[in-house]
Amino acid sequence: MLIKNIEALILASDEPLSFDKLRTLLEPVESSDVRDALNTLEHHYAERGIQLKQVAGGWQFRTAPACANIVEQLWQTRPSRLSRAMLETLAIIAYQQPTTRAEIEVLRGIKVSSSIIGGLLERGWVKVLGRKDVPGRPHLYGTNKQFLADFGLKSLQDLPDSSQLMDATQQEKLELPEPNQITEYTHHEQEA
Amino acid sequence: MQGLGIPEAAENNAKQQMFAGMETALPLLPPVHLDAFEGPLDILLHLIRKQKMDIFDIPMAIITSQYLSIIDSNKDLDVDVAGEYLVMASTLMQLKSRMLLPRQEVDEEGNEIDPRDALIAQLIAYEHYRMLAEELDEFPRMQRDVFKRAIFPESEDVERPLPEADLDALLAAFGQVLKRMESEVLYRVVLESMTVREQIQFVTESLQHGSMPFHELLRGQQSREALVTTFLAILELWRQHVIQVIQTQHNASITLLLSISNQQSEVQA
């Protein structure tokens, strides 16, 4: 019954359903039982057209990527492609957060237009975390929960390991400006 | 480079310097358009990787002239964008000349300094994020590769829980109202005697008969000032828990309604 209940709750929820919320709703229940049930369900759906995924700190049913082409035909519009400028800016914000526009410009070697930042804000992937205490008090940007949900990430730790992308010799030869450690503060922000 | 507004004489002079000693055979590259690139670093990486050069030992003379010829063949450069490309051009020329110095530059400890180090670090860092961006693009993305269940049809009989919207959502919705407003013809109201207090009255009265979508509540407001005042009133009421701000789903429309305790007290009063 527990499996059925969990399945029903996740399907009926509009947002990814967090583990804590699930456990509270199913009270009285052992955390380990909920975890086992989720595992069972995840495996059960692994090869189906619907998958159970852990995203943005919660559980959600979503269609399998392999079915994208057919599902798309339900609607007339095709999703817009993201420009390289937007993706690069998003990647820098994701790994360097909290970061300012000026810092992004240094890394990209070119101006970051307001429309790029605006586009990311509008999609809800990025938000203003505060202001940096330097002259001009520029905005500090970080990723939003929507970013995790839309890119299918459990948490920021789920981003590809940035160090693996470079080969070892390149790393030895150079002291790179390391991406900031993602701080507790921003992580909490995501979970909240 | 006329498009960049550089005086003719200075330009010719610069060109002579740029191409001094460049008559020697240069690898010919297919013409490229700047639109294909995300800035000077992107161009340099393209040149380096395409020709399989060692990024830690960039042949400055070759790279500099190739870079300059790409910039030169894109005369219609937008002045806004041109700046960064020109700064890089001067950096490259400076590095090229420093590489020609007979004596090596050394730091305090006597180690040789490669003038190219800073540029190399910049290139590698950028290439790094360029790869991360590509990786990110390959993640199964909501609405492109994966889809979630659409909302169940609303039923009158079902009482759904009311999820509270957060401030971000309310601000985003307000931004949209302002944007929509810009496209409409505005009449300038010379004297605006509207106060937040009055708008608080207006909002609570509007909500007396039940909930109301956020954008509808703002629809009647004629000027930007009125919009902002009303928005401030909404924020104030929300803060005092007089109203509830409800958003059923991310990016869904926002609904305002009086808090239950308040509805009763208003009725009594």
Report on this structure.
The complex is a heterodimer of chains A (192) and B (269). By secondary structure, chain A is α+β, with helices and mostly antiparallel strands. Chain A has 10 helices and 4 strands, in the order H-H-H-E-E-H-H-H-H-E-E-H-H-H. In chain A, the strands form 2 sheets. Chain A has a two-stranded antiparallel ribbon. A two-stranded antiparallel sheet of chain A has the order 3-4. In chain A, a hairpin with a 2-residue loop joins strand 1 (50-55) and strand 2. In chain A, helix 1 (2-12) packs across helix 3 (31-45) and helix 5 crosses helix 7 (114-122). The longest helix of chain A has 15 residues, at 31-45. Chain A is globular. With 269 residues, chain B is mainly α. Chain B is 51% helix and 6% strand. Chain B contains 10 helices and 5 strands; from the N terminus they run H-H-H-H-E-E-H-H-H-E-H-H-E-E-H. Chain B has helices at residues 8-19, 40-50, 60-72, 79-99, 117-138, 167-182, 196-207, 214-219, 224-239, 260-268; strands at 105-106, 112-113, 212-213, 243-247, 254-258. In chain B, strands 3-5-4 form a 3-stranded antiparallel beta sheet. Chain B starts with 7 loop residues before the first helix and ends with a helix. Residues 1-7, 15-25, 152-158 and 264-269 of chain B have low confidence and may be disordered. Classes of the chains: A alpha+beta (192), B mainly alpha (269).
